[in-house]
Description:
Blueprint: H1 2-15, E1 19-21, H2 40-50, E2 58-59, H3 66-69, H4 75-83, H5 88-94, H6 100-123, E3 125-128, H7 149-159, E4 166-170, H8 177-182, E5 189-196, E6 209-213, H9 219-229, H10 232-237, E7 241-245, H11 263-279, E8 284-287, H12 296-312
Parallel strand pairs: 1-2, 1-3, 3-8, 4-5, 4-7, 5-6, 7-8
Bound molecules: zinc ion (ZN).
Zinc ion binds at residues 172-174, 247, 249, 290.
Amino acid sequence: MTEILDIFKLLLKKRFPFKFVYSNEYWLLDPGHHIFPIRKYRLIYERLLAMGAKKENFLKPEPASEEDILRVHGAKYLRKLKTGTLSSTEAQALELPYSQALIKFALLTVGGTALTASEALKDGLAVHIGGGFHHAFPDHGEGFCVLNDVAVAVEKLRADGKIRKAMIVDCDLHQGNGTAVIFSRKDHVFTFSIHQMDIYPAEKAASTLDVGLWSGDGDEAYLTRMRAHFPRLYREFRPDLVIYLAGADPYGKDQLGGLDLTLDGLKERDRIVIAEARKLRIPVAVVLAGGYAAEIEDIIAIHINTIRVAQRA
Ligand SMILES: [Zn+2]
């Protein structure tokens, strides 16, 4: 009996040989009638269970500590968030209604990405069913982003002595402006952002490498640019960890964007980022980032495809 159980466990491990990080509290935040599809987190979790993932595959994050947040964000900003004393301009920039639940969500998400990054170092790969809030700057948040989970995770692992160098591969439709500013003049992090030029943020910050695309660009334009840089950048920079923002918003039917990627094109993008890193034995932490297609099923399909690519890598 125990033998059968062992074989079963082995099979299970083979199906998902890495961890997911997820909290049921992620979707308790109610942003009201808002384009941000908060319920995608729960739907992806349920879909993974239907695909054979077991409860043991999932790790539950803790909210990030103040010490971890303060490696990236200013004490004044964090205090304002916690005490509800943002100015009206600062609160408006978030483009999400301010609430204590929002701050709780942001802190938990940061903890989630930090846990995912640390698990990726153990298993070679880990997926956060959340995260990717790249428009958060040291002293303010904007565009649905309160705290920069990816930046805090990198700096935490570095402070813990677990990594020396990290690469952030940001394939969300929007430029990773907050992340770019946080790591400008910091040699230990390579920030890569491929994004649509003629949308938010109006002012692009300088990443280590930016690739700008224009409305109407599709699979070919996108993938040609990706192949021009990967795996070359991995070989040149030799990061100890890649954090991949696998945004679903470059999709052709996204309501906020104008790029024209197909589901297959997005899958190939995932393959380039994840599989090429794994071939070089670089650990990859995946975070979901954005996605605003009118049909939530499309958003779920894109994220699940990313996870399937991770499974095969
Ligand atoms: Zn986005």
